[in-house]
Amino acid sequence: MENFGFECQTAIIAEQQNMICQRIVRIELTVASAVQNIDQINHKLKQPLTIQLNQKWEVSDHANKLGVVLLPVTMAVDIVTFPIQAVGAGLLYAAFANAKF
Length: 101
Fold this sequence. Notes:
Elements: E1 7-13, E2 16-22, H1 62-98
Antiparallel strand pairs: 1-2
């Protein structure tokens, strides 16, 4: 792994020795929907593979710093107001469905 640019170290987790390797990479990631039938997968792994993704914030100016600080607040507001938004969207859909143009 180190030949590929990873930094590796040995750690003992749950009384087992594990190799932990990390490397900073920049990729575009598309999350796929869950597979309905696992037998239809083209490529199967012989054993489970755990991947942990961490995000590193790079802030270069004051506008970005303010955005980083406000992100948890805006997410909380979105979560709290989601039911209201859903009801509003349902009412709007019903209004258009019943409208005669």
